[in-house]
Amino acid sequence: MKPLQAIALAAILAAGTGAWAADAxxxxxxxxxxxxxxxxxxxxxxxxxxxxxxxxERELKPMIEKExxxxxxx
Length: 74
Fold this sequence. Notes:
With 74 residues, the protein is mainly α. The chain is 65% helix and 0% strand. The protein has one domain (3-73). The chain is built from two helices and no strands.
């Protein structure tokens, strides 16, 4: 096998295994578990972060839609 063919085969196999690993189902996150990391607040839970993100998205949604509608007119 030529070196170029070997490299191409290795790249194809690596890409295939990476895509297969990404499709693997992950365990659902337990929302009542405490957060870990440096940016957490005391007694903060994982579900609190998700709730805050959804709330922020609801607040910003009208503004984002307005901006996208304005840019589509140009």
